[in-house]
Amino acid sequence: MSGSSPAPRRSRQWSSPDRRSISSLLTESRNSPLSHQDALAAAQAEHDRVREAAIRVYQDYESQQERRRLLEQQERILQQQKQEEERIRTEERLRAEEIRLRELKLKTVPKLPPEPPAPVTEVNGSATSQNPTQPTLVGAKLEQTSTSKTPQFGLPQPALTNGLNGHANGTSGTKPTQPTIQSMLSQPLSQPNITPQAQVQPSSIPSPFSQPVKPTPTQQNGFPAAAPAKPSVGVTKDRYIEIHQNLKRLRESLLQQSKSNPALKQRMGDMRRELRKNMGQLVSTKSGNRKQNEAIQALLNEAISGAVPSQLVDPSDYITDKREPVQGALHNEPQLPSLFLYLLNHFSKAVINQFINECGAQPTTADPIGVTVAIIFSKDVYLWRGKTLIDILMAKFRVVCPVLFGYYGNEKTEQGRLRLGWKKSPAGYIPEQQHSDRMKGLGAGYAAIALRNFGKTKSSNPWPPTNYWTAMARIVNTPPADISETQFVVLRAMIEASEEKFIQFYGNAGIAALRKALVEFPNKAVNKTPGASGLEVLAQILKRDIGLEL
To answer: What is the pLDDT of residues 267-285, one digit of tens each?
Structure first.
């Protein structure tokens, strides 16, 4: 082994790029500038090679990431596309359902023909009908007999002894002591024993309607029907609508007058604003509105006296009856200042707006407004030929709340909503809740005007309680298939917070009417709505609060 030469050492597979021999490292030229330049050039070449390799790796990685981002974006777009397609399909289905619903709402079912008359049978040799023609107490009717002016209400007769007070129809006289509601409730309906206040006379309905209202003002469904209207000379089928149009023309006339009369223009605008301001300042406290009422009367006095000159117009265009001069009346002349009628028109408009805006949520707030209305329209100085001009206000009531005048309709149709006084804005009909609030305020306001006691004043009642009775009768005598939610809302607003006044005027007959309105009327409705339940709840409230058992 000692004589043998050592095995040659294998070279490494990966050698350095430039491995010099030891001898070359030991030469004197290893530190020469040329050697350093060679080493630097070799290091630079290695650096460039490594850098290029790193750049290639980075570029490959970026390309992979870009492809991944493009794939993810494409997936998101496809998913959004699917979602939009699903949304469109859903909206198309909803639209088709809505079209179908509207078509169903527009469909109507023809009404059945009226039932044939009941057969007549012979009883003890005399012909009688199976349906008795003698009305019951609930089916009472305001009328006068030829021998006595005491109203008859059928059998049994409650004699309506506590009916309208002595001034309800414009008459005057002493006012006896008024019984309490508790004393009236303690007496049976069949045997009333209430001290009469005065004779009750049905007031003529000043405006017949353009379309017959079912049922006609006769005994029907057991409710005391309204007194039959006396035809007025020169009155058209819907006089209130004509009055409303005439009031619009009056306003245009005043605008034309103001263009040529600067004093009228300035004062007319100031008077209108002052009137509206005082109406908005009415409060519910007793005797708290004297200042406001005096301010309103001062404006009307200024207008009717001619202190602000305006053209004279015929007041017959703004009333429902034909009038002749009356002896002792302050204004018998054939014409009145147009500014005075213009202010009465704006006063009536302010009254309606107050009822709508203030009395829907709280019906008791309607009472002070009703007091102001009674004061203005009963003043002798504002009467024409001895009678009130309250038809101007009623014309506005007729437009905004037709159900008070016997109109009814289907709330699901365009024509029905127009007949019910549903307000329409540029965007369409107002929402149901807003319509309900309007009707509540108007119903409460109508009661505040009609149920006023004029027993302590010499003035005549401009809108007697018989008009309240008539409005209630028209509503509850609506055929069952035509009863609407609007009628329920208006009827409850008329009764709520006014039932005591109604009973004080009509006594046992009023209790019978309340039973018809709060118990039988909602029960006969074909569709049970929240309004029908509201009337039934009101009957329970009256039983709890005042002991009125209906």
So the answer is: 998 999 999 999 999 988 7
